[in-house]
Design brief:
The chain is an all-alpha fold and 302 residues long. Strand 1 and strand 2 form a beta hairpin. The chain folds into two domains: 44 residues; 239 residues, MetI-like (MetI-like fold, Orthogonal Bundle). Helix 3 packs antiparallel against helix 10. Strands 1-2 form a two-stranded antiparallel sheet. It has 13 helices and two strands; from the N terminus they run H-E-E-H-H-H-H-H-H-H-H-H-H-H-H. The chain is globular. InterPro entries: ABC_transporter_permease, MetI-like, MetI-like_sf. It is found in: Cell membrane. Belongs to the binding-protein-dependent transport system permease family. It is a multi-pass membrane protein.
Length: 302
């Protein structure tokens, strides 16, 4: 009798598992088609020399060896890291402060939340095109306003100077993304017990003390998630860089994925699909390393 019960229970669990896998199938199939297959394709062709037209030629790890000595690639990696560091230093503190101000209560809070979030609704490519016009050295609205206010004597080359172009990219990218960061922090702040903050205020704690010693520790898990999402998103930046500076001037704002794009689709050169695939794998590894480092460091701060 116990054996029959065991067999019945085991058979029931198998049927339950089968039903569960069937329910996962509609979600897994698109994931496999649009994620697993392209990744496998990328890794496979990273071991070939291929221009996209002729037959691929297997060359082993030569593409990866080439990456190690490719100065332009490592320059784009360094630019990506500077771009990410600059945006993180702006977006995370600013998004947190805006969220806290709105959480504590301000007139027109809902309107302000909508206003700050609106840039995130626009496609990054559209934002890049818009700011290409705004930041133009000749007749650009920003330069025109600064000249009329007497703040500058001559137009600033926001996109034509190497340092200015990277700073402009950081500023535009931060403006685009700070709204979603604010909303994520705001969602985390709604989980902080208001009774706890009110009790601290009754005991004589100031706004700064409440924020530092009560709010920040309680939203630490949300902060770790927000920083992780932001790091991954920034390191994968492409649209806004491509449309705003296209990696210029002279490659000063060339990030990893605009650099890879040229090997795939540069109309003025023969495509190098194999090498571009290897660069794609390398970029994915760099993003993964940054994410793992953040997770490890954030765990050590608990």
């Amino acid at each position: 009798m116990p054996r029959d019960r065991h067999r019945t229970s085991r058979g029931w669990h198998r049927r339950e598992d089968a039903v569960g896998y069937l329910m996962l199938l509609p979600a897994f199939v698109p994931y496999a088609i649009f994620a697993v297959v392209p990744i496998a394709w990328l890794v496979y062709y990273s071991f070939f020399r291929w221009n996209g037209f002729t037959d691929p030629e297997f060359i082993g790890a030569e593409n990866y060896a080439r990456i190690l000595t490719d100065g332009e690639w490592w320059a784009s990696v360094w630019t990506t890291l500077k771009f990410a560091a600059g945006r993180l230093l702006i977006e995370i503190p600013l998004g947190l402060v805006l969220a806290y101000v709105l959480f504590r209560g301000v007139r027109g809070g809902r309107i302000l939340r909508t206003f700050y979030f609106l840039p995130h609704v626009l496609a990054p490519a559209i934002i890049g095109v818009i700011f290409t016009f705004f930041l133009a050295e000749v007749r650009g609205p920003v330069n025109q306003i600064l000249l009329r206010l007497g703040i500058i004597d001559a137009p600033i080359s926001f996109l034509g100077d190497a340092q200015n172009a990277l700073v402009s990219l950081i500023g535009v990218g931060s403006w685009t993304n700070v709204g979603i960061i604010m909303l994520l922090f705001f969602a985390g702040l709604t989980q902080v017990p208001r009774e706890l903050m009110e009790s601290a205020a009754v005991e004589g704690a100031g706004e700064r003390q409440i924020f530092l010693h009560i709010v920040l520790p309680l939203i630490a898990p949300m902060t770790r998630v927000v920083v992780l999402i932001t790091i991954i998103g920034i390191l994968r930046s492409f649209d806004i860089v491509k449309t705003l500076t296209d990696g210029g001037p002279a490659g000063a704002t060339d990030v990893m994925f605009t650099h890879i794009y040229r090997y795939f689709f540069d109309p003025q050169a023969v495509p190098q699909m194999g090498y571009a695939s290897a660069l794609g794998v390398a970029a994915s590894v760099i993003v993964a390393i940054a994410a793992v480092l953040h997770i490890r460091l954030s765990r050590g701060q608990r």
